[in-house]
UniProtKB/TrEMBL annotation:
This is 7TM GPCR domain containing protein. It holds the Pfam family 7TM_GPCR_Srx. SUPFAM superfamilies: Family A G protein-coupled receptor-like (SSF81321). InterPro entries: 7TM_GPCR_serpentine_rcpt_Srx, GPCR_Rhodpsn_7TM. It is found in: Membrane. It comes from Trichostrongylus colubriformis. The keyword Membrane applies. One of its GO terms (cellular component) is membrane. The keyword Transmembrane applies. The chain crosses the membrane at residues 17-37, 49-71, 91-116, 128-155, 175-198, 229-251, 263-282. Keywords: Membrane, Transmembrane, Transmembrane helix.
Amino acid sequence: MNSTKNVPDYLEILETALLGSVSIFGFLCNALSFVILIRHRVFRNSFGYLAACEALSNALTLLIFALWATPWTFMEIPSTIQWLNLYVGQLSLATATSCFHCSLIIAINRFVAVMLPALYRQVFNERVTVVLLLIILIISTLYFSLTFTGCEFYFDHDFHAWTFGEQPCSQSISLYIDTCYNLIVFVIIGSIDIVVFVRVRSARKKIMASSGGNAEAENRKRAGRENRMFMQSLLSNCAYLFMLFSFHVLARFTSAEFGLFMFTTWVWAAAHAAGGLILIYFNPEVKGHLVSVPHFVKFVWNPVTTIDTATRTTAVVPSNKY
């Protein structure tokens, strides 16, 4: 790549604004979702804890973008803190990897729930969930520990992009871990989602064919929930996959500074922001507590009372309509 130090100031301002806005917005989406997931009693289970871990990983990744990448997009990084740049870069990879592994385990969680329901409570009990979360933490910590001279990932002010070093170790991590390994992870997730969706759809058709009116209404409700879960997983994984494709493939075909910024730094932040937005959109239990600041604060302070009130309200409204 050629240096781009002569970039017009207005372009640097635009890039800083784009990155800062998507990072802050995405951080808020994921951080607020994390708080709701750990406070809402509906999510006090294996799926809820794993979803909270994914939201937290997204939030931490975007916090790094907001506090580190955004200001250094406009200002040059002082040479005295270049060493910190290396650690922050590896930390961003660690938090992103944590997010990907959470997505994988959530997919496996749903697979077991649908394909092996009798074994679900044994396979994904509270103790196993804690072990899985610890494994995710250990893998992320190992990724972070790869920071040393000759094995680098950092934010480059000249190109306004996160980049791997030119050393053999850095390039190996870029190819074999960040590209190939993560691609395999998302292929597995996509395959699981398709199998689960086909199985649920087939089972639902059989049940609806032999059910009465009340059962049909319940089946339609369950179908809507299953469709939301499938679309949530599909869209999130598509966002992460496109981010990897953009970072490692599309960025190679542009020499323009703005294009490089968009295909690497911005699309990475946008993918994690999309993860939080998708989580909110497809989970009414989360979206329902983000209607206003007072409601959210009340829920965080006393979630049981807020949930009970919402439940009573929901029960009354339909009866009035009919």
